[in-house]
Amino acid sequence: MRHRPARTVRVLAAALASAAxxxxxxxxxxxxxxxxxxxxxxxxHRGEAISLLExxxxxxxxxxxxxxxxxxxxxxxxxxxATAGGAGFGLVDDLAEGPWTRRKxxxxxxxxxxxxxxxxxxxxxxxxxxxxxxxxxxVTQRRAGRARWVGDVLVSGALxxxxxxxxxxLDLRPGRALKAATLVAAPLAxxxxxxxxxxxxxxxxxxxxxxxxLTETDMLGDTGANALGALLGLAVVRRASRPxxxxxxxxxxxxxxxxxxxxxxxxxxxxxxxxxxxxxxxxA
Length: 284
What we know:
Blueprint: H1 4-31, E1 41-43, E2 49-51, H2 54-69, H3 73-95, H4 105-114, H5 120-139, H6 146-170, H7 176-188, H8 195-214, H9 221-239, H10 242-259, H11 264-269, H12 274-279
Antiparallel strand pairs: 1-2
């Protein structure tokens, strides 16, 4: 009981630090974008210009908030590896241009890899997978032999990587990925587990980025979405038991496989409740 106020303060501090850094970095990048603003400008679903600068700002907020909110060194190091891995390989995919980037979907990138054709998306799949496993290894305790430990690390690493990918898949309409991340992070930020500080960092970054996302001036891009998803995946790993992690992983894999055949936008627009949440705060 005596430690609860300290944990609460740490979680709140993580959220506030993440929000403040996300907001301030985005404001700074607006006047001093690396390589100029044009390098970070893309076209959204309406055919209008939109900035990818939200992504690096969110990454800065996530890293700061996680550092403030982590209760131990191993979790902090894992948070840095998972978040930076998602961000770094996502950034390559965001900024690279040319024929080697022209593949769509996980199946397309994996198919190219099988043929010896390394796309930026394929590089991202490999890189985020490796960083996710490395992060998982840092927070997985050796309790029942080496083989079981390796199995736990692979399950947790796959969960982190597929979480990173799923948030990226949702970043197709204003606010969608940030809303989904907030719904996942909110319950994880409660309680006394090691995941609370990580989830609070995600909540702070989402809150700071949401206004620009909803007004369609900004989007997460692969940089922000992969980083946000990876940190949320790590938060789940730190909170959930092995059976729960297996169930969550199965769900993430199922949704990823479904995305190759079904449009998430079509499903959301045709589902009451999801449709209203998705449209909240957006332009008509």
